[in-house]
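FAQ: What does the model actually see?

It sees only this:
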Amino acid sequence: MAEAEAQEKTEVPTQKKREDSRKEGMVASSREVSSAALLGAFALYFLVAGQSNMGTMKSVWRHSFTNLAAGDLTIAELGRVFKDVTMTLAPMLLGVFGLIFIVALLASYIQVGAVFNALKFQPNRLNPLNGIKRIFSSVGLAEFLKSLFKMGVIGYITYFSYQQETEGMLQLSRLSVEGILAFNASLLGVLFGRVALALVILAIFDYLFQRWNMEQRIKMTRQEVKDELKQTEGDPQLRARVRQVQRDVSRARMMQNVPKADVVVTNPTHYAVALMYDREVMTAPRLVAKGAGHIAQRIRDIAEENEVPIVENPPMAREIYAQVEIGNEIPEEFFKTVAEILAYVYRIKGQTAEPPLN
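And it is asked to produce this:
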């Protein structure tokens, strides 16, 4: 039972898991967003440039059929007409394909950003059992419902749009060719625009669903989280051992500085701080070692072995221990007291009792 619970994907995915999934192409992306964007772009295209493009096509048709009717119907003549038609329609077609490419690229970038991953052959995609599972999964159900919704919406909007334009369609026989083309371009623009607006609502819900579904897919088990932690930060026991070694090395280096100190100030039993002062190179006394408990006792022992004076001043020892880091000079607030301590040390050593601090 415990093993089964451990394998359940109940943990929120880590940042590394998200990045790895993104590199593999597992991103929350909705095709409905791209569909809505493309339909919206087509609607704008037909409303803005539809009539102009229809006029261009009319000119191409008239020119082609006029030339064919005026000349001999030969292979060379057909080739020339085809070339003229292609060169005339190429800018329009390039504009349409360019619009599709740009809109699709922007729709994808807005959803997932810049994701570049090589195409990989995935044999599991060919497994029919996996396909059946996808069909009857929550994703398959969602896709089925989306398809029904789109069919219903597109059918209703198409019917509604043409119902509104029934009167105009009955008058098409009275219009010129230019008028008929303009009417059709406008109708297509309105139709695409309405469908796009309806699909925007579907796209919003579908995108939110895709994000939720992706979050569920990349969730991790507790064991996966532990394994990733070991991979990224190392084994906890090993990290603890490394930290202990670092502390030991630092402590040993600190103890080597105790014999160089001018004085050791103690609590007397709980704290010990070792101070060193060289008037020629230092502006204030420097803390070279400090410790509490057994480390404080070790500092006192080394001081005694090396005949470093030990002075009891509990308040001073506690304050310096709490406020000053090893290697730093003491703050100005301690100058007076430390100067008195150093003057006392110099006297007992038989040195000239000059004030050590300014």
